[in-house]
Every structure is written in structure tokens, then in C-alpha cells.
Amino acid sequence: MDKKTKKKLEAAGWEVGDAQNFLELSDAEAAFIDMKLALAEDLRALRLERRLNQTQVARIVGSSQSRVAKMEAADPSVSIDLLIKSLLKLGAAREDVAGAVARQS
Amino acid sequence: MDKKTKKKLEAAGWEVGDAQNFLELSDAEAAFIDMKLALAEDLRALRLERRLNQTQVARIVGSSQSRVAKMEAADPSVSIDLLIKSLLKLGAAREDVAGAVARQS
DNA sequence: GGAACCTATGTCATATTCGACATATACTAG
DNA sequence: CTAGTATATGTCGAATATGACATAGGTTCC
Q: Tell me, what's the pLDDT at A18?
């Protein structure tokens, strides 16, 4: 299994090691998870660009270091709402967010 | 107050008629609400394009008529996650979703 | 009139997401 | 080895979002 596929399954809340269920990812579900991964990648990229650590980002967006780590990992417990709000608070433009939404991760 | 401004405030969970707090909408908050409105508009547009009623959409996306109505109204109780999932299940492409995200509502 | 259809709004019990905290892991410098 | 710094992971109570249901409003047709 390649690295990206593994990431996607984990983002979907699956233990990788599970055998079956591969085909239960509908197109809509797959696209949704992929969007989340792209947004998470952008969040990390934006943070690094700004030379901030996760604790500083947490302060800016009103959250905690651990949640920022989970955002960047596209953890199943983080919503797209939270990712978008965080990106915007870090200064991303709507077009940037749209770029991630459209981009195949 | 124009119609769009009123809609935005309501989407943010405010009673229009409230006097103050006008300036507490940060840029990030305003952009977020606007995205939600754009997604909601697209959901309704897509439904009408497909000539479906809200009950049919509810069946397709796995929800209820009342929630679909709230989605289309960009009700404060609906998340962007739900809007995006619903759009995708109705057959929208990622680019379509990205279009709404970028579009000033 | 009222029956049939569609959409809007209010409420509720359950489910999911949240910030926070503790703790683990990893890397660097002294 | 230890201390300092950064990121990852697990858990929790509180907050928010969810589908479902009831019901209200609105339109069209007879």
C-alpha cells in the first residue's frame, strides 16, 4: 500500500491492517477525505511559511497544540470547518482554501 | 440593511434587530460565513437543476427534509462538512465545491 | 372550502467535535 | 546523560452538529 493511500484510510478513521472494506469508500467519501488531507497539508505549509510552531498557531486560532497537530494530521476528530477557520485565521485567502479543495492531494 | 447582509448575520446566528456587535465579524469569520452561504446556494441550485425536492435530496444524502431545508438556509446548526458531503453526494465535482468556496456570495 | 404537495421552523436525544491536559516520542545542544 | 524544544497521541467533560419528528406556512388544483 502506498503512503498516500495509507494516509487516506487513516484519515477516514480506519486502522491500516484491516483487510477488507476497501471498496466501501464511495466517490463522495473519497473526495471528501482527500479535501481534508489537502487542507491539512496547506495548514502545515502555511505554518512553516510563517515560521511558527504549533503552539503559536494554537494561540492564533484559539485552540491547543494537540489539536493543531491533529489538524495537520487530518485526524478523524477534526472537521473541515475547523481546518478552514484555522487557515483563514492564519491569513489564507478564500482562493487559497479553494485551491486546496480542488487539488488532488 | 440589504438582503445579503441580513442573510449573513442570520447565518452567523444573530437575530437581526440586534443593534450592536456589528464590527465583531472579523475578516476570517466573515469569509467563513460567506463560504457557507455560497455552498448553501449551490446545494439549492444543484437540487433544482436535478429537479428534486428536499425530501428526495434527504434520501440521497442520508438525512431528513428539515435538515436539507436548514442546509439551504445556511442555518447556524449546519456545518460546512455537511454541506460539502451533501454536494458531493449529489454529484458535484470537487471543482464545483471549490468554486463556491472561492466565490463571493 | 380542503386535499395534496413542498418548504420552513422548533425541538429533542444521540453523536460528533471541541479545547484542554497529560504524556510520549523525537531531536538538539551542552 | 540531561535539559530544552517541538510534535504526536490518548483521554475527558463540555460544546456543537446531527437525523428525526411534529407542525406551521405557502401554493395549486378541484
A: 54
